[in-house]
Specification:
329 residues, mainly beta, Immunoglobulin-like, 5-stranded mixed β-sheet, 11% helix, globular
């Protein structure tokens, strides 16, 4: 039978070892540097929303994502296009080509896009299924968010149609709130005190139905505007962190970690341009607005002209785009 002194000695040794281990753990936690945000984000895949209606003059659907060969145009076996006819899916040979992006949109969009279309072109009124489907036994070279998309083609709706009224930029009220935005400061995101305004590019009424097939982009003060709520939450080209045709412009007030956020504009005058582009064509609709975003209270006067539907009175969308060397229909 162990003596009381022996048990006391063992208890003291146990407490001493536990104290040493606890101290070591605390030192490790305190001294370990913050690891940078690491994550995996799938590539976009097809740049058309599920159920999208393509305009009658569409030439195909753009694809963004790594393919297995150095020459993506040879990847016809990686894609399947089916036309729905009398309730049955009929396979149509796919055709791949490149579409150059208008110079004024580069930065918001890649310099060129890979376009997929059925051999012979899209048929107005038809329904299609576009699918990324490598042959059995073939390896997939990436992970994609949108590997299959069902679309239909409008019978007689062009983008834009002849004599279409201009698009305009709708600008929301000034709002100050705490918002979450991607950060490079070690964590994937951060909360920031921000002043912001929502914007949306309002297309002519007859084109509303085409929203899911059109690629939108935003520029603020001449630079592409592509924020996200997390560093790894990359937004597909043609959309934004608010969705297609919508965006949110913000400035940070008293940022705790300046110069680490993905996208934050300095307070002051903001020149905002939004564009809607039909991939594979030169068809583009655009509008712009100029307004103030400051960390003080909401400004008494806005530079938005309500009569112009959000377009600044001092500069029309066409003038703003001409200033950047962009021709607009």
């Amino acid at each position: 039978m162990r003596s009381l002194a022996g048990l006391t000695s063992m208890s003291s040794l146990y407490n001493a070892v536990r104290a040493v281990l606890t101290t070591a753990m605390l030192i490790t936690v305190v001294s370990t540097p913050t690891h940078p945000c690491t994550c995996f984000s799938p590539e976009p895949g097809f740049l058309a929303e599920p159920g999208a209606v393509l305009p009658s003059n569409a030439v195909g659907i753009p694809w963004v994502g790594k393919l297995c060969t150095e020459d993506p145009l040879r990847n016809t076996n990686a894609f399947v296009i089916e036309r729905i006819s009398d309730g049955a899916a009929v396979s149509v040979p796919p055709r791949l080509s490149y579409s150059e992006v208008p110079h004024a949109l580069i930065g918001a969009l890649p310099e060129r896009l890979l376009m997929l279309s059925p051999e012979g072109g899209l048929v107005p009124g038809a329904r299609y299924i576009f699918r990324y489907a490598p042959l059995p036994g073939s390896r997939k070279c990436g992970s994609f968010r949108n590997e299959e998309v069902h679309v239909s083609v409008a019978v007689n709706t062009l983008f834009p149609f002849v004599n279409a009224p201009p698009a305009f930029l709708n600008v929301g009220d000034v709002v100050r709130r705490t918002t979450t935005i991607g950060s490079r400061a070690g964590m994937c995101s951060d909360s920031v005190d921000a002043v912001e305004r929502a914007v949306s590019l309002v297309l002519p009424r007859d084109l509303f139905v085409l929203q899911g097939a059109i690629l939108f982009s935003t520029f603020v003060n001449g630079e592409p505007w592509k924020p996200s709520r997390m560093l790894c939450d990359s937004t597909a080209p043609g959309s934004s962190w608010e969705g297609r045709g919508r965006d949110r412009i913000l400035v940070a007030c008293n940022p705790a970690q300046p110069n680490t956020y993905i996208e934050v504009m300095p307070p002051g005058t903001q020149v905002v341009e939004m564009h809607a582009w039909l991939a594979g064509t030169e068809n583009l609709l655009s509008a712009s607005a100029v307004f103030e975003l400051r960390c003080e209270s909401k400004p008494a006067n806005s530079s938005i002209n309500p009569a112009a539907g959000g377009t600044p009175a001092a500069e029309t969308p066409r003038q703003a785009l001409a200033r950047r060397g962009l021709c607009v229909r």
